[in-house]
Amino acid sequence: MGAPNNMKKKRIKPNTTSKKIWEAVEGIPQNTIFMMEIPAEAFFSVYPKQGAGNFEKEYFTYFDGEFSQMIYVQKEFNTQCRYLADKAIKKPEWALGIMKKVEEANQEFFRIMNRVKRMNLSKMSNLQIAELMAEIRKVHMQSHGYATSVSWHVDAGEQLLTKAILKIVQKQLNKAKIQESASRIFSILTSPVKRSLLDQEETSFLKIALMISKKRKLREVFVQSSLKSLINNLSGIDPQIQRSINQHYYKFSPITYQYKGPAYPLGDYLVRWQAFLRERKDPQAMLNQKKNDRNDLFKEQKRLTSEMGFSKHEKNILKMARQMVYIKSFRKDALYNAMYYYENIFKEVGKRFGLSVSQVQALKSREIITVLRGGKVDPHILNERLKKAVDYWQRKGKTGFANKVMTGEQAVQFMQSINLKKPNYAKKQLSGTCAYPGKVKGIVKIVNIPEDIKKMKQGDIMVAHNTNPNLVPAMKKASALIGGAGGLTCHTAIVAREMKIPCVVGVADCDKLLKDGDKISVDAERGIIKKL
Fold first, then answer.
1. For 508, which of 27, 356, 406, 515 is 20 to 30 Å away at the CA?
2. Cα(143)–Cα(334) distance, rounded to whole angstroms?
3. What is 429-531's CATH topology?
4. 469 in Cβ contact with 451 (< 8 Å)
């Protein structure tokens, strides 16, 4: 199988000395080697150009089937996170400048993938598809690779940025003698002004529910019909509603694809409208409430900013935090949308080279381009990657890198040779960072993948290593959320704020330390979880 030019003839000898401690800082279910290439490469090639530091000398993603872990040298990772958090607090304008470019790049990412949606790839030559992939790859790197320093890495690990901003908020509360919860004020002041796609989807959903509810006969059809009957007869029931539903589905379904798919089918959206109408909820009242909540948020932000006496620098820090939350959500939505339409290319490449979509997803974009330009591909190697793989990266010079994918016995031996930090599963009390305040008692349900959603009942406490848009239906049922990933920019924290669900994030290994059926109490204000 052809290798990218910058990886050729470079011998990689991983440093696996026993003194070096490695740490799995993120676990990602349903992931692919294709998806992890861009962020991994960016750690080494992009960060130094951004002034984001180059403290990490080694990194690898470990794939065990579809489950992956992002694994760093613990000391290097902590140093990198500390550097980024310190720089963002001292120079918020630096982070804001990067995020402005990233926002523009993600808008372009949406545009270029919508072009792919309309392309007839079967009529393109291998070289034309290679050029298309190279064009997309450039935008993909600008949107996702350039974003990770200020939308993930800056607050990963110990959530140093979140803690620093919380400290600023608490200091100003004390100074202004305001008797308010620092966590609640922090949540208000760092909530973004711009609307997320999740918020847009909910608004669109309610507007369509309102249109249906105003037509008595149509409402009865939705309430009384089976899902199969509704799907088969929708076009004949009401063409206007069908158009609105299709527009909603085509716009928002791709962001539920995540990294590997599939995206939610049309039936899942119809079931939501059916359930909503059967429960006799008032869509107009809910739309009004959403609008009022948004207006109240802006008023509260303005009032608190004025009353708490923040300096110009501190106001810039809060502005940066709001933009970080927005950019994390926006670039993830752009990425999920892109992965959905990348599949069109994967299918076409697979057809030409006798590969399945999963096998193509086991290639990196550089490798796909090389194959399309005349290189060779070995399906056996791809099958080995799909079973177990170590995608190892090593820094070479200031912005260079070397990369090697180990599979089979070589991957097993590598994992056995490193000193990987082991979590303590005997804890009775867990702690993390408050993402949205509140106190709740309930039953734990571990939900990491869409197949887990069926376990959730209304009022359960949802526990996940991290969340994404295809887990939102479960999150809506939760009385509280607990996330392993942490900081103000993690998806769990973002959704918790929008839905006003008590939430604690940055609880390391929460999905291992807790199990389905555990009875727990969550004091989100203090960031404490106790087994009862």
1. 406
2. 8
3. Glucose Oxidase; domain 1 (3.50.30)
4. no
